[in-house]
Amino acid sequence: MKILSFGDNVVDCYQDQALMFPGGNCVNHAVFARRAGAITAYAGAVCDDSAGRLIRDALVAEGVDTRLLRTEAGQTAYCVIDRQDGDRVFVGANLGVSIIRPEEEDLSFIAKVDAVHTGRSSHIDAWLAKFSRLTKVSYDLATVHDRDRIAFIAPHCFLLAFSGGNLSEDGALSLAELGGASGAAWCLVTRGDKGAVLYGDGKFFRAPIQPVEPLDTLGAGDTFIANVLVGLLSGNGPQNLLAAAAAAAADTCLLQGAFGYGAPMNVDLATMLTIDEVYKTTVPVAGPVN
To answer: pTM for this structure?
Structure first.
């Protein structure tokens, strides 16, 4: 099957190690879906700087189609990360040129794939209705559990994913059911080391827990989402695809960075904003004219 990931990218900057790694939800998804057996492509924007070249080169090395990856003037997006007990802690970021409006070439490509993946960090919610008329939509709402936002997003989704590491099992089940009741065909809630819940066809399915001593949990949730989407598109049974997703996510936790490719950090951090500032100041992409 063919999957396009549309939207956000960053280089994840590990200041304590002076290293940067390619990442961002949509970049990660393209890589992990490719590793899971799909033919994948990535549409986004970077600059011709060290960070942008790192992202482009890593995608090419992983076999991801980059024909829709634009090069713009400015600064490639970055995120500064600290780590505590193996878990990621976001210190600050700048989205650079990464927030883009779909162009006709992108839409033509979307119409020819089996699914398009995007998420909250791509800020293109106004395009979801159009996307869903062209193909199946996978969307990562991450830690956003707001009912109104779910009600807007879910009707366009084949797969709607959430991060729910802070939720109880009952809370995760309720969130998954809410996503399904709001219109998503399938709803996934990842819960870190507590596994995951998938809801679809009126049934709940639980992922097995894969105990692992993590080196770095960055990218584990994206791995899970990508593997679940590939499994659903392939027609695999829920329990089988969840087991495969859990195993793949556990492997990701043994890597540094989301999927490797670390390089000496070469990013101007003078433009860094806090995460709250990023979401307060980012202007969502305007929707299609028709």
So the answer is: 0.96
Report yes or no: 58 and 261 within 8 Å, Cβ to Cβ.
yes
- CA dihedral sign of residues 62, 63, 65, 70: positive
**Residue 50 burial (10 A CB sphere; 0-12, 13-18, 19+):** middle
Q: How far is CA 23 from the centre of its chain?
A: 9
> Greater confidence, 267 or 86?
267
Per-residue model confidence as pLDDT tens digits over 6-33: 999 999 999 889 999 999 999 999 999 9
At residue 86 the predicted structure's pLDDT band, cuts being 50, 70 and 90, is low
**Average pLDDT, integer, range 222-250:** 96
- In degrees, rounded to 5, the angle at the alpha carbon of residue 113 between the alpha carbons of residues 134 and 185 is 65
Q: Are 77 and 9 in contact (CB under 8 A)?
A: yes
At 241 the pLDDT is: 96
First to last CA, the chain: 29
**104 φ, ψ to 5°?**
-60, -40
Q: How many CA atoms lie within 13 A of 109 on its CB side?
A: 21
**Strand-strand pairing, 196-200 and 186-190:** antiparallel
Scored b (16 or more CB within 10 A) or e, 181-205 reads: ebbbbbbbbbbbbebbbbbbeeeeb
CA distance 164 to 241: 19
Tokens of residue 166, six digits: 């802070």
The one-letter amino acid at 174 = S
Query: Helix or strand or coil: residue 160?
Result: strand
Beta-sheet strands, E only, within the chain:
2-6, 10-14, 19-23, 39-46, 69-71, 78-84, 87-94, 115-119, 136-142, 159-163, 186-190, 196-200, 203-206, 263-264
